[in-house]
């Protein structure tokens, strides 16, 4: 399992029979979710919810398609996207959109001619593979690789991406996430707005209250939200690079993190913002080193939420002194001598892999001077067996 692999430390543990572990549970959505998230006028979450020992996996049926969500946090994002898509479809049926889209068609032709006249503005076209290698290498010095949902450079140059970000903010969705249905609808709306003059103010209908806006659900501050809305990806990367450098992160680690395509500009910016708020915390590079290992979008979201969870602990529970590496995890050490794992899990079952994590961690902690308490700070819940086994091994559960 993906998160199991991410959490695995690799230390040997005492032999245990299969009966000492538990199989991941199957939940009913009706028992997990509030009514407004479970079902609404545009969506319904299927009742069978598979848990992998760490995260819940949902299937969402809607009027605009069937979607999957691989965590509670991702479920809220997907539901918000469904209502945004439905709202976009409503706008596409208006006379104002038809007029704007027709006008956009004419302007699109003029833009296309401009691209032909100025081929350097686009990464597509007749440029050779060698020239594209050098062009991308130049971009990597400042921007890192572009995700699949980032717009081509010529669209950014003519202002399309700024318009798209403004519409995405109005709809309460993350412009960079990989929901292809959302991206196609948003492209049409933004194109009509940019090239055809469709007013951003036409988005007056409620997009859906079940999930809240995507960025709010991710826990972003207003300042960060404003930056995500106003700044193009290249500027976000420059800002994130500067913030990481100011934290004293090793330049090679920064480079690897900036080049990691699993992190959208949103994930990257929110993770860096959380670390940046932990002023005075030493060895934040340890957290970034593990974030570099993320290879999927849901793992990037996990790392981002983990950084935000550590920030919440730092502000509301106990001041974090430093981050410390424990196997393949970044733990936090507090001024009071507590070792803390902050994990944004949905439901923790007592699996063989989790037992290896805890038993291996206990061996490592045994060689750390001054550790007075071990804490597991969970965003979700855990099974009675997991609680019992963790407490037996000396862990305090939050």
Mean pLDDT: 78
Low-pLDDT runs of 5+ residues are 1-17, 108-145, 153-157, 209-219
**Helix amount, in percent?**
40-55%
Largest sheet: 6 strands, antiparallel
Total number of helical segments?
Answer: 18
What's the count of strands? 13
Q: How would you sum up the global shape?
A: flat
Tell me the fraction of residues in β-strands, as a range.
5-15%
Distance between the termini: 25 Å
Q: What Rg, in angstroms, do the CA atoms define?
A: 23 Å
Walk me through the topology.
Blueprint: H1 2-7, E1 26-28, H2 29-32, H3 35-38, E2 39-40, E3 43-45, E4 48-51, E5 56-62, E6 65-69, H4 72-92, H5 95-117, H6 129-140, H7 153-158, H8 160-171, H9 180-196, H10 214-217, H11 222-230, H12 233-246, H13 251-258, H14 265-277, H15 285-291, H16 297-316, E7 320-326, E8 329-334, E9 338-343, E10 347-348, H17 352-365, E11 373-378, E12 381-382, H18 384-392, E13 395-397
Parallel strand pairs: 9-11, 10-12, 11-13
Antiparallel strand pairs: 1-4, 2-3, 3-5, 4-5, 5-6, 7-8, 8-9
